[in-house]
TrEMBL record:
The name this protein goes by in its record: SDR family NAD(P)-dependent oxidoreductase
Domain Ketoreductase: 12-202
UniProt signal peptide: none
Pfam families given in the database record: adh_short_C2 (PF13561)
Transferase among keywords: no
Protein family per UniProt: Belongs to the short-chain dehydrogenases/reductases (SDR) family.
Keyword Oxidoreductase set for record: yes
GO function terms (MF aspect): oxidoreductase activity, acting on the CH-OH group of donors, NAD or NADP as acceptor
Source lineage: Bacteria, Pseudomonadati, Bacteroidota, Bacteroidia, Bacteroidales
Source species of the chain: Butyricimonas virosa
């Protein structure tokens, strides 16, 4: 058990989507380490299993797995009602859940495109709408959206995915303008290439040449992204809103 010094998220209620694997898991552990009470949402809660208990015990906090498809609006509403009933408020929302495809313009599968917009954009907007209502009442809160460097600069062979992440950037900035008067911060983190299992298994020589374009000469680790999320979740960013923070090791330069 770790319980040393002041923790930046002590007793803050945090909701993270897509929490079972990769970046989502790293975010869950990072916020829990700083004292956050974490509701870890995913369709694959069975994959959380033992590590959730071990992490909660290690950092002397609570991690509550919540099984829910974020595209099911009724299920999402019930999830928010559950959290409100149990805690009374939500301090941090991390919209991490997302899907990706790698397709050139002429090969775009429009059914996959619709699904990507449903998960990456529409479900995110629904969560922002529901959670911001709670945050408006408490006159505080931090909403963090998962964008991508390709949503800022575009990418060959990723037109569809880039479009969804470009939308995330626009939603972030527009929501920040609307919610600022309620003291709610809305920011986004835009990762470059991150060494998750899903990414490494999908490389197929697709990105090996691009690694030479990364200033630091390595892929990001999920923990690198989680560090940026923690910054926006904590009061270290209390006067920052509407920003998109690139975490790409210099790839965008």
């Amino acid at each position: 058990m770790e319980n040393v010094g002041t923790k930046s998220l002590e007793n803050k209620v945090c909701l993270i989507t897509g929490a079972a694997r990769g970046i989502g898991r790293a975010i869950t552990e990072k916020l829990a380490a700083q004292g956050g009470v974490v509701y870890a949402n995913d369709r694959l809660v069975e994959e959380m299993g033992e590590w959730v208990k071990e992490c909660a015990d290690k950092y002397a906090t609570e991690i509550i797995p919540v099984s829910c498809d974020i595209c099911d609006f009724q299920a999402v509403k019930q999830m928010i009602i559950q959290i409100k009933k149990e805690r009374g408020h939500i301090d941090v929302l991390v919209n991490n859940a997302g899907i990706v495809t790698y397709e050139y313009l002429g090969m775009i599968d429009f059914e996959k495109l619709r699904q990507m917009f449903e998960v990456n954009v529409i479900a995110m907007i629904n969560l922002i709408q529901l959670v911001s209502r709670l945050m408006t009442r408490q006159k505080s809160g931090s909403i963090i959206n998962m964008a991508s460097i390709v949503g800022v600069k575009g990418a060959k062979g990723q037109l569809a995915y880039s479009a969804t992440k470009g939308a995330v950037v626009s939603v972030t900035r527009s929501a920040a303008k609307e919610l600022a008067e309620h003291q709610i911060r809305v920011n986004a983190v835009a990762p470059g290439m991150v060494a998750t299992d899903r990414f490494l298994h999908s490389i197929e020589n697709r990105f090996e040449d691009k690694l030479n374009s990364v200033g630091f000469g390595r892929y990001a680790l999920p923990e690198d992204i989680a560090d940026a999320i923690l910054f926006f979740a904590s009061d270290e960013s209390k006067y920052i809103t509407g920003q998109v923070l690139g975490v790409d090791g210099g790839f965008i330069l």
